[in-house]
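Sequence and fold:
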Amino acid sequence: MKKSPFLLALTLVGSLALSACSSGTGTDTTGNEAGGSAAKPEQPASSKQVEIFSWWTGAGEEAGLKALIQEFKDKQPDIEVINAAVAGGAGTNAKAVLASRMQGGDPPGTFQVHGGSELNTGWVAAGKMEPLNDLYESEGWNEKFPKDLIDLVSSEGNIWSVPVNIHRGNVLWYNKKVFADNGLEVPTTFDEFFQVADALKAKGITPLALGDKEPWTATHLFESVLLGTLGPDGYKQLWSGEIPFDDPKVKESLETFKKMLTYVNEDHAARNWQDASQLVSTGEAAMNVMGDWAKGYFTGDLKLKTNVDFGYVPTPGTEGSFMVITDTFGLPKGVKDPDSVKEFLKVLGSVEGQDAFNPLKGSIPARVDADVSKYDEYGKDTMEDFKNSALTPSLAHGSAASEGFVTQANQIINIFVTSGDVDQAIQGLKQAASAGM
């Protein structure tokens, strides 16, 4: 993806200490547990060692990480593994600790970072990462990861990290009983969405659940409208600077978003994304737009059955597009044992490593040749879509633009949710973009 010329403008400690995906409710958008300390673990003496830095401390993600580490230990028993996961703040604590260590010349062996701008305009632009082109070549990964995904972890002619998982952002979840009882078809276009919403509203059912107590959730909904209006190519051109924020399609997106907001629950500002999902689960609301970590919440905490109690389709207008949220790991400059880090990255990018991690995490593998039998019904469907869709970066989750821009965009969109002032939002986004994306 082409980058705009002002990408180098970034304050590492300030901006990277922010979490673009924080739910603020005990988990982040990918289910990461909040709460805990941010102390650096003691490192036992060993001739070969790899320190794995992440914020994966919640139940599913911690189990996935441990399975991945065990896979590595089975292959490389002579390399000591330090699990340096930092709990707390839904990734905010981990990013603050990471920024401090990287600035202080004490990088971990490898660390979790979202593919896209969080990686490329942050650590890569700051000159803190080693390229991985040779590793991709030796492992044959150029043929095993989709080109659009490789582009997401590439800049300046080099590849900088290895994706371990994929979450999809542009998913419309719906209560199957509500739709069946009211004789409604699930909407795939904006026109169909508003027709369905009017029918539901007339029956006293909230058409669209929203929980924007945390600012990223409204941005998450808006980016799905942007994608459905601009299409995948236009959407990506927005972040490369080829399409300006005062483009008519952006204005159209804001108008559509404004209209959608007239169908949400009145208490949306007091709810988080899990609360919004609960409204769909009980039938108080019919639909919700959220990433596919919501599937884990439906089937895990709420004990619902996929395609029995709830269903899923791409958000309106986005059939054939896949909003990617991907966790990746790279090789920082100055690590003590880069060869051991590369051995871990090989396992992380392997079929065996990804199939050990992702079924427990609730995500799908980044590779296109993983063992589909290890995944549930939703996972199988998503893996197929991932192979055949145009991949696009998420704004709300740090891939499409710098964290400084994301923070401003969150503020602009959340003011818009209250004010509905389209021109004000456009001017705010233009100003934020001019300061650096």
